Amino acid sequence: MTQQRRIIRAGALAGTAAIGALVLASCSTSAGGGAGDGQSFSLAFPVSNEAKTPYEILAEQYMEENPDVEITIDKLPGESYNTTIRTQLQGGNASDIFLSAPGNGQSFSIVPLAEAGLLEPLGETATSLIPDGSEHQFVVDGAVYGQPLNIAPAGVVVNQTAAEAAGITEYPADWQGVLDACETAAQAGGSYFVVAGSIPPNAGMMAQAIAATRVYAEDPDWNTQRAEGEVTFADSEGWQQTLQAIVDMNDAGCFQPGVEGAGFDAITNGLVQGTSSAMFGPSGVARDLGEAAGGEATFVAQTFPPADAADGAFGYASSTYSYSIPASSKNKDAAKAFLEWMAEPAQAETVAEESGTLPITGYAEMDFTGTAFEPLADMLAAGDFVPLPNSDWSNPAVYDALGAGVQGLLTGQKTVEQVLTEMDTAWGE
To answer: Is-annotated flag, keyword NADP (predicted)?
Structure first.
């Protein structure tokens, strides 16, 4: 099987889970770590539907290859995964391996969990997989606490079939092109973008996608400067432009009716039925949406257009998920043996195939022609990307403030200045 075919098969079932895993709410029970028998262990990850994720597929494969090992699979609702995992870790009853997130930005992110003493240090294999420049997202006080699983672009996913049916023959090259596409889609009876406006993480993802060219293309180290107190959100012209763009798109009818109260079902229904053309989120969703559309539509990954076409494309690509072991695990040796197996190229490729992402290593040499990633080929080859911003923010409250703030922009209850000031306040919490 060629590398190109592997990418074409890349699934987005986990991409949908990736969106759901960002949502905060509720709680769930866990299989826990068990008494510890030296070989078996438990594994937790988020799910958003009944379809198998790559995490479950690989766990089953590992058991087939190791008949003496039993993995207790703990599927947690994506909508509550953040808070559930944090609660379980604090209670000492989390699964022996769980899906974690690099950096700082979420409740299940590696850095705050490691700083709280809730994670087990890993070894050289995990260290060797960390993408260049991302060490700070996995390493705390010289020890690595997460094993990266993939490289995942994120930004905009486009239903090209729906866009063309609405009369939009080319993806917008600049800000004016975005507004023109919105007008064309509205005249055709739909909307260009569909947003789950009632879900703060999806609202926040929209803002991050726009910020790629307004903030990070000009200054890839903006987060570092914010951490050092050299800049703020409120005083950043790029962040002001980012949130003002959301206000302007809302006024221009770029979003579906009732966007402020919409959930994830609005995204799925809008894109599959073709009443909307684009969404904000991880690129892995492309294949899942294509399958949901019965193969009748073509979905591709894009970056949000720059203000001026001459500025060029800039976006996000990073290891969005990793495996970590709780400090409270009673089956650490068995868990670490599984992580060693997961690091092998064949397993890395399976994660990429089944999640609609790229392998943690070797993606730079891949041919993206004819795949959902083709529009991102030049960006990936040139390295014109940074990790998702919120993974480097000081704490999850900053992203919470952004998501809730964008909701306020959509309802007209908040101003751009208020949202950015609230993000600065959250940074210091």
So the answer is: no
86 burial via Cβ count (<10 Å: 0-12, 13-18, 19+): buried
Distance from C-alpha of 309 to C-alpha of 312, rounded to nearest angstrom: 6
Could you tell me if 164 and 285 lie in one domain? yes
Domain ranges, residue 45: 3-151+320-361
Say how many C-beta atoms besides its own lie within 10 A of residue 122's C-beta: 23
Same domain membership, residue 182 and residue 304: yes
Domain count, the chain: 2
The enclosing H or E element of 16 equals helix 13-20
> Domain for residue 370, yes or no?
no
pLDDT band, very low/low/confident/very high, at 134 (cuts 50, 70, 90): confident
Tell me, what amino acid is at 244?
Answer: Q
Distance (Å, rounded) from C-alpha 88 to C-alpha 322? 18
pTM of the full predicted structure? 0.78
User: Mean pLDDT, to the nearest integer, of 409-414?
Assistant: 97
Q: How far apart are CA 278 and CA 280, in angstroms?
A: 7
Are 81 and 98 in a shared domain? yes
